[in-house]
TrEMBL record:
GO terms, molecular function: tryptophan-tRNA ligase activity
Record's keyword annotation contains tRNA processing: no
Function: Catalyzes the attachment of tryptophan to tRNA(Trp).
Enzyme class: ligase
Entries under CDD domains matching the protein: TrpRS_core (cd00806)
Subunit structure: Homodimer.
Protein's gene: trpS
Subcellular location(s) per record: Cytoplasm
Protein's recorded name: Tryptophan--tRNA ligase
Catalytic activity: tRNA(Trp) + L-tryptophan + ATP = L-tryptophyl-tRNA(Trp) + AMP + diphosphate + H(+)
Length: 333
């Protein structure tokens, strides 16, 4: 039995990329493991959020995770800000991680762009908080999409430097759990960009709350090229949009890309998109409906998260107190 930790930012609404790249794996890994899943609201505010919208989206995304099969009785499901141990350990990690390491993070470089003078300092130290999220539980397995792998390498560097600096094997090594085939679902408008909550165009993603008509319309408008679908996977090279749609199809049909192309190769995108829409609608709309039912009772969602936070804190508190002792801080009462 392993201790699993993962998190999702409650900005916007979880989408098909989050589902295929991470959440479906979170659900599967519950069986036989101790699983801790977190809505990382402190990470969300590294970029300004409208406060009421952030609260509402934290509840909505919690409802979506439950609707995706995260069982809040078996797993621990909570919001990050409610367990203070994360921020305390993140501070210690701010003092362990090196400035140069953080400057090399590609996600920081992408998000900060050219205007580095004007991004929050929270955005710069974002990966330190992420390392703290995981290590405050001594979690060892972290199911994520491919875009998080650099951050997890950094978390291991931080853990190793802490252990080395204080001469104690205190933090374990983290193993990323990345599902190769769905680790990077791309935008529906541009097959070279990942599907993202922060893309300005809602047409670029399928939100887990989208209804059947919206899904059909987004897939109909999804960018493709003029060629028919190829008969073999090698011929998807240089065709990022086709590769993405076929990959989504394969993931939802639980089939191999080669099998999908055997069945659909030679077809134009019209018929293929209709079949793809059916698959997405069948998977996503029940999740949206269940989440809407749960979200109609915001008090219950908040209580679930608060109960989760109390259970999370019971694990985190002794570990972070020990980290504080190791670095030389006097005990709190
Ligand atoms: P976030 O909120 O961007 O995404 C949540 C999870 O979804 C995966 N993901 C994708 N997978 C495939 N294709 C995509 N287009 C796609 N977009 C997102 C992400 O890889 C992630 O697994 N920094 C994290 C949240 C976090 C965290 C943590 C994760 C904070 N602390 C500790 C693991 C452990 C993030 O912004 O994820």
């Amino acid at each position: 039995m392993a201790r699993i930790f993962s998190g999702i930012q409650p900005t916007g609404i979880a989408h098909l990329g989050n589902y295929l790249g991470a959440i479906q794996n979170w659900a599967a890994l519950q069986e036989g493991n101790e699983s801790i899943y977190c809505l990382v609201d402190l990470h969300a505010i590294t970029v300004w959020q409208e406060p009421d919208a952030l609260r509402a989206q934290t509840r909505t995304n919690a409802a979506l995770l439950i609707a995706c099969g995260i069982d809040p009785v078996h797993s621990i499901l909570f919001h990050q800000s409610a367990v203070h141990a994360h921020a305390r350990l993140a501070w210690i990690f701010n003092c362990v991680a090196r400035f140069g390491w953080l400057g090399r993070m590609t996600q920081f470089k992408d998000k900060a762009g050219k205007d580095r003078e004007n991004v929050s300092t929270g955005l710069f130290v974002y990966p330190n908080l992420m390392a703290a999220d995981i290590l405050t539980y001594h979690a060892t397995e972290v199911p994520v999409g491919e875009d998080q792998s650099q951050h997890l390498e950094l978390a291991n560097d931080i853990a190793q430097k802490f252990n080395h600096d204080y001469g104690i094997a205190f933090f374990p090594t983290i193993t990323p759990r990345i599902i190769g085939t769905t680790a990077r679902i791309m935008s529906l408008r541009d097959g070279t960009k990942k599907m993202s909550k922060s893309d300005a165009s809602d047409q670029s993603r399928i939100n887990l709350t989208d209804d059947a008509d919206t899904i059909a319309q987004k897939i109909r408008r999804a960018k493709t090229d003029p060629e028919p679908l190829p008969e073999s996977a090698e011929n998807l090279d240089g065709r990022p949009e086709a590769r993405n749609l076929v990959g989504i199809y394969a993931a939802l049909a639980d089939a191999r890309v080669a099998d999908v192309l055997r069945d659909h190769g030679g077809q134009g995108f019209g018929t293929f998109k209709e079949r793809l829409t059916e698959l997405i609608v069948a998977k996503i709309t029940p999740i949206g409906a269940e989440a809407a039912r749960l979200a109609a009772d915001p008090g219950t969602i908040e209580r679930i998260l608060q109960d989760g936070a109390a259970r999370a804190a019971a694990i985190a508190e002794p570990i972070v107190r020990e980290a504080e002792r190791i670095v030389g801080l006097l005990p709190a009462r």
